[in-house]
Every structure is written in structure tokens, then in C-alpha cells.
Amino acid sequence: MRGLWWLEQIHRMVWGPWTLLLFLGVGIFYTVKCRFFQIRGFRVWWGATAGRLLAQERKEEEKEEEEGGAGTGNSGKRTVSQFQSVCTALAATVGTGNIAGVATALAAGGPGALFWMWVSALIGMMTAYGETMLGIRYRYKGTDGHYLCGPFVYMERGLGVKGMAVLYSFFCLLCSLGMGSMVQANSAVGTMSYTWNVPAFTGGLVFTGLLALVIWGGIRRIGCVAERLMPAASGIYIMFSLLVILSCYDRIPAALAAMFSSAFRPESAAGGAAGYAVSRSIRYGISRGVFSNEAGLGTLAILHGPAECTTPHEQGMWAMFEVFFDTVILCTLTALVILCTAGISPDELPGEGAALAAWCFGSRLGRAGEYLVSGSMVVFAFATIMAWYYVGRQAGAYLVQGVTGDRLLEGIFCDRIYPVLFLGAVFIGSEGRLDVVWLLSDIWNGLMAFPNLTALLFLAGEVTLPVQENGT
After folding, report:
1. Model confidence, pTM
2. Nearest 5°: phi and psi at 148?
């Protein structure tokens, strides 16, 4: 098909080697600027994120927020806690790439790919910190009482380039209707059909119906669902992954040794980029990197926007934690499951993608292992769609407001038109092949990333370290 050929050529142009250099270059620039804060300041950002959860400070804060909002009338109902905002952002970053993408990486580049996943994640942590911090710094409340936050806000208010902000919001809206809805729904319903023989139409109908119940409750309901869904789903996946790894613990040393010994082979570096970014090659890998880790795309700044009782530094460190948790923890567990059960040579692996991961879990846990992988992919895909709905809604709100300046039209689009468009995209995406949608979504993602990474470079002077690191 000639139309598809042209899309592939545009895709190659958008996701050429320069795109990889831009993503990594911005991350390295922020890493050097912040004096390797992701490594040197581990105790600071870990203590401000996971450390607080382990100390159960979250429960005390939520109790204080409830008490504080008890006498404020309707304003208390709009409150989104910091933890709910974090779980919503985590829902977008933790997805099918943590399973299928890692399996593809190891099949392409061998055990050394895992090392490059870590390197990519460490670099991306500082990009995530910068864009989230800027998003919180420039956010503002709209007429409906909710925060408007994201790259389009700091492009307009920080850089003073409204045209760039409108362009970003346009591509972001398109991505929510492609990569964020149709592609994820297709993956989830396809998995349901393959594993449990659920007809695609039935699966799509149920999937869309459940999603409608969540999104029509607004950002607060999305936050509440994410707050319960993500810790539980991630915890179950971690538990069963550890169960498989410990069942063949004698192979762990060999797997780790092979990882470091082969890390600097060219094929391992290429595989690592693919695993970090969910694909078979560097070109497709980086383009689909938004699946596994959204650092550099700008959506993390949008997802952290509704958090109350927080500071730019705090939310920036939460974004760092999400990248770390997504890649260094979850992706590493998936990789060790595969390397310890299927072998350390790409030629030994029985398949690739989700099928490879399912085979590895099934070899140790039987049919229950295959159900675990399938169930995890469905839950993670649902959570990702849920988070992308909010991203697209925010982008649409800014786009309509920026182009027309009409607040009434903005409300009509966000409350009536966009939910129907998004749910329709989810249902349509559950049916058939989406080759064209994949290509278009990859192109939109790339076109969305360029203005965001450019803005991050020009606004780098406003990104500072937490007080604990600055000593001021």
C-alpha cells in the first residue's frame, strides 16, 4: 500500500538517529546540570517518595487533608491527594512494555540489554524530574477549579511561545486517541481473546464499559481507582516474579554475569534501547519508549498536575521514582524471569514478546503463570488507558481554549465531546489490526516530544535541586 509506505518514510524521518540523540542528550544535560542527583541524591529522593510510603506518612497526610477539607464545602471534593496523582502517573508509565518490551529486548540483544535498560532509565530520571518540576511550577487553576498543568503551560508561561504550546497540545490530543486508547485496548482485548477465548466484540464492550464508569467520575475517581489498582497489580506481579526467580536461584549468578559480560556488544546496546522503549530496533524502540517510560514526552508533567499539598521539587522526585520503579524494578524482574528460565542466549529463547514472557512464567507456575502474564497485561493496559484519558482531556482543554478563547466551548468539548471520542477510540481499537494507527501514533509522539525537549533545554535554568541537596 503506497499510503502506508509514505507513513513509514515519515516515521523514519521523525524517529531517526537524531531523535535518540535528542532524548539521551537532554537527559545527560540534566544529569550533569543536577550533578548526578539520581545517583548521588538517592537517599534524598528515595526518602521523599518510597521512604514516606514505608513510614506510612501517606495515611496521616490523607487524614489531615480530609479534616482540612471538611469545612470547605465543595472545594474538598475536588481535592486529589499527592499519592493519587502519583498512582495515576504510574498507571501511564507501567504498562505492557514492562512485559512484552523486555522480552523483545532480550530476544534482540541478549542479557546485556538489561544493562542498557538501566542506563536509559537513569538518564531518563532527570528528564522526568525537570519536566514535572516545571509543570508544577507553572500550573494554574481553570474556571472549573482544577489545575491546568503540562508542557503547554510552561511553553506559554515560561517560554512565552504560545504557538509551540498549541502545537504540543494538538499532537498530545491525537496521541491520546491513538497510542493511549486504540493501541492499548487492542493489546488488552487481544490478550483476553487469546488466553480466555473472549470474543473481541464482547471484550471490547466490557473493557469500554468499565472505562466509562471510571472516567465519567472525573480526575478524582481516576485517582481513587489508580490508588487501589496500581499498588495491588504491581505487588502481585512482583510477588510472582520473585517466586519464579527464587525457584531457579542457582541460575541468577550466571544471568547477572552474562548481563555485564555482553553489555558492550553492539547487539546488546540495540536490544537495551528496544527494551527500554518496547520494540525490535532502536528506531522503533525509542518511538515506542513512551510505553515503558514517558520521560521526555511531557505527559508526566500533565499527570502530576492535579496533586494538592505539594511542591515542584516533591513531584519531580516522585517522577524520578516512577521511572526507577518502572524500569529498574519491574523490567529487571521480567528480564530475570526470562534469563533464569529460558536461557541467557537469544538463540535459546522460545519466542519473543508477550508469548515469551508467558512461556517463562508458565514453565514454572503452569497454566497459572500464563494467566498471570495475561491478567497483568490487561490490568496494566486498562490503567494506562485511564491515565491517558486525563492527559488527552487536559490537552484538549488547553487546545480549545488556546485556539478559540471560548471557555464555554472548552467545557462542552471536555465534558461531552472528548469522552465520547475517547471511548469510541477504545472500542474501535479492540477490533482488528492497527498497523496504520501504530505508525500514526509513533509519528505524533515524536512530533510531540520535539517541542517538549526543546522547552526543557531553554528552561533548564529554572530547574533546581531540593533544599536538602542545595544546602540553602
Report:
1. 0.85
2. -105, 120
